[in-house]
């Protein structure tokens, strides 16, 4: 989302360590859910979060550290992201949110947030719950708004209450920096905000760290402004994305599709013909070794 759109649209954002941002977004959902359950006189000791088994380790960490049961929608051969229908089937009264991923860490695919929003709206209507959606746009958040502006996967969908983005996946910032943005002030429980005045004025804070160097955030803000004011945002973002893309990763898939090993190939701007030829010959060699590589998803 471009900054000028963000200014109009959003009331609450935090520029943080990205993992911290993810923890805090989850904590806000947990606390909101607990408040509601307390007000209704219902038990509030068994929160769960629904997500695909393609989940990034940060969400497993959140579930463990903040004592929230992680309910994973299974993957199946040929379908490596969260199936919205199955996700909604797993939702119950203790679900703090469904976390969808824009840019699965495994394959880069986007989950269908729009369909999830539709199905969950129906489920909420039937049951009287109001289960919200979180969008983990760690890698997709800086792509979708520019390349796929009509893809509804953000605050255009009423159940989407918060979105996180990882800045450092696109370079030009220090490693680890990220954002979390909430739809409105109401989606961030007041009791989680601490007010300090160590520097002579009221400073609301929602962080896990206390004293911390600000340089990494300053660099990101300055670059964002620079990008806004001086460079054409589109060309800048495109170059930025391309420069970052340099990785070949291999890993086995999660439970249920563990027998599949994945080689992720991301092509960057300076990918040359000779590199392409080397890649093809490597793949051919794999075939010769009895492997049967199959392309799954190409951007
Ligand atoms: C990379 C990634 C994260 C974690 O991001 P970091 O900035 O590396 O901490 C979280 N979720 C998804 C889907 C990711 O791809």
TrEMBL record:
UniProt catalytic activity: L-glutamate + H(+) = 4-aminobutanoate + CO2
Molecular function as annotated in GO: calmodulin binding; glutamate decarboxylase activity; pyridoxal phosphate binding
Alphabetic keyword roster: Calmodulin-binding, Lyase, Pyridoxal phosphate
Modified residues (N6-(pyridoxal phosphate)lysine): 169
One Pfam family, short name: Pyridoxal_deC
Family: Belongs to the group II decarboxylase family.
Protein name per the record: glutamate decarboxylase
Source organism (scientific name): Parasponia andersonii
Species classification: Eukaryota, Viridiplantae, Streptophyta, Embryophyta, Tracheophyta
């Amino acid at each position: 989302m471009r900054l000028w759109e963000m200014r109009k649209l959003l009331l609450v954002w935090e520029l943080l360590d990205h993992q911290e941002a993810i923890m805090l977004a989850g904590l806000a959902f947990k606390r909101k859910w607990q408040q509601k359950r307390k007000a209704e006189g219902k038990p509030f000791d068994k929160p769960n979060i629904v997500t695909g088994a393609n989940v990034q380790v940060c969400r497993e960490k959140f579930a463990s550290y903040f004592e929230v049961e992680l309910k994973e929608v299974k993957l199946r051969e040929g379908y490596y992201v969260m199936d919205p229908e199955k996700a909604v089937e797993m939702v119950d009264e203790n679900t703090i949110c469904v976390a969808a991923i824009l840019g699965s860490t495994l394959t880069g695919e986007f989950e269908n947030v729009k369909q999830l929003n539709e199905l969950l709206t129906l489920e909420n209507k039937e049951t009287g719950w109001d289960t919200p959606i979180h969008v983990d746009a760690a890698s997709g958040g800086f792509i979708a708004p520019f390349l796929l502006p009509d893809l509804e996967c953000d605050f255009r969908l009423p159940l989407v209450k918060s979105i996180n983005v990882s800045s450092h996946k696109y370079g030009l910032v220090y490693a680890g920096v990220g954002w979390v943005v909430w739809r409105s002030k109401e989606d961030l429980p007041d009791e989680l905000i601490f007010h300090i005045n160590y520097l002579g004025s009221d400073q609301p804070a929602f962080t896990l760290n206390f004293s911390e160097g600000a340089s990494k955030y300053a660099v990101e803000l300055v670059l964002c402004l620079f990008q806004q004011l001086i460079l054409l945002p589109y060309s800048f973002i495109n170059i930025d994305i391309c420069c970052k893309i340099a990785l070949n990763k291999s890993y086995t898939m999660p439970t249920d599709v563990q027998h599949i090993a994945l080689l992720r190939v991301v092509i960057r701007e300076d990918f040359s013909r000779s590199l392409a030829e080397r890649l093809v010959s490597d793949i051919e060699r794999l075939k010769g070794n009895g492997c049967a590589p199959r392309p799954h998803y190409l951007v």
